[in-house]
Amino acid sequence: MDIDGNAIETVTRYNCDFPSIAQVRTRDTIDGNDKKITGIAVSEISNALYGIYFSTENGETVLDDTRPTGFVNVNYGEIKDLKLDKITSYGYNLVGGFCGINAGSISGLETMNTDECSVVSGKKHVGGIAGFQVPTDENMEIGNLVNHALVEGVQAAGGILGMVRNDFHFSDIDIQELHGLSAVEKQLLEDPSSLTIRIHDCENYGAI
User: Fold this and answer.
1) Residue in 44, 17, 16, 42 with CA at minimum distance from that of residue 149
2) How far is it, in rounded angstroms, from Cα 150 to Cα 34?
C-alpha cells in the first residue's frame, strides 16, 4: 500500500542487468573500504533501456557506439579500495569493469575472476578496470590496480586501461555529450597538452 492506502503493483523482472551508476561527480567518492561486490552484470543495451543514457526531446533513448559502460559509466571523482568479482560488462565502445571512461582518480581497485566468471567485452576502448583515460587539467597518477577478468576487444583493449591518449579530438570519440565535462577538459580534448599520466604498480592476470 502507498501512503494514500492504494495498492501498489509489483513488477518482477528476471535476467536483467544491473543499471550502471551513470556518473561519479568531481567532488564525490566511492570508497569500497576493501569490500567486494559480487555477481553483477552491466551492459550498454540494458543501460539504454533503463534510460541511463541521454534521450531525444521526445524522450526516446539514444543508442550509438559512444555510450560508455561499466560499474560506473563515467568517473570524474574518486573510486578507491573496491573489488568486483564475477562481473560482466558488455558494450561497443568505452567499456570497463569499473568505468567506461575515467577522468578522475582510481586506486586500490581489483577486478576478480572467481570461477572464471568475469568478462569485460566490447569492440574498442576496452579495459579490465577502465576503457578510456581522459586527459585532465593536471598531471595524473594512476596506481594500485589489478585485473583478473577476461578482456575481449578488437581495437585498443588492455588489462588495466583500454586506451590512454592525450592527442585526440572530438572526431575520435563523441565525448562532448557527456554531462559534467568542464570547459578545461573540453579544451584539453581539442588542444592536446604536455600534461602527463603516470601509471604504476598495476598488475594484469586476465587474458586479452
Assistant:
1) 42
2) 22
